[in-house]
Specification:
With about 120 residues, the protein is an alpha+beta fold. It has one domain: OB fold (Dihydrolipoamide Acetyltransferase, E2P) (Beta Barrel), CATH 2.40.50. The strands form two sheets. It has a six-stranded antiparallel sheet. It is globular and about 35 Å long.
C-alpha cells in the first residue's frame, strides 16, 4: 500500500518531504515488477542529482533498472544498510528500504509529482 503522505514519480520512485529534505525510495509497484532486488548501485553523499536524471541502478533476479530522481538537489545521505542488505527494498520499500536523502534545491519540482490517488490511477491499481 502506497502511503498517502508520500509523493510519487512517473519512474516509480517515491519521495517523503520533510522541510527541504526529501527521502527517496522505490515504490512497491516497481519492486513487484522488478522481482527480488539483489544489488543496488547508489551515488555518494554530497553528489548532486537532477530531476528526471538517473542517480543509480537496481539489479533484480529479473531485470536491471535505472533509478530516476524526482527532484534536483544534493545528496545528504545514502542508506548505508543497502550495501549489505539490498533485500530491504523488497522487505520494506517505504521504511527501511529507502535509497537516498536529498536537500531539495527546487521545491517547485514537487508540483509535478503524483499524490497517492493519482499514482494509483497512473499504475491502474
Amino acid at each position: 500500500m502506497d502511503p498517502a503522505e508520500y509523493l510519487y514519480g512517473k519512474d516509480h520512485v517515491w519521495i517523503l518531504v520533510d522541510g527541504c529534505v526529501g527521502t527517496i525510495g522505490l515504490t512497491d509497484y516497481a519492486r513487484c515488477e522488478l522481482g527480488a532486488i539483489e544489488h543496488i548501485e547508489l551515488p555518494e553523499a554530497e553528489d548532486s542529482v537532477e530531476s528526471g536524471e538517473p542517480f543509480g541502478a537496481l539489479e533484480s533476479d529479473q531485470a536491471v533498472a535505472e533509478l530516476f530522481s524526482p527532484v534536483t538537489g544534493e545528496i545528504m545521505e545514502v542508506n548505508p544498510r543497502l550495501a549489505e542488505l539490498p533485500e530491504l527494498v523488497n522487505q520494506s520499500p517505504y521504511k527501511d528500504g529507502w535509497l537516498i536523502k536529498v536537500r531539495i534545491e527546487r521545491p517547485e519540482e514537487l508540483k509535478g509529482l503524483f499524490s497517492q490517488e493519482r499514482y494509483r490511477e497512473y499504475i491502474q491499481v
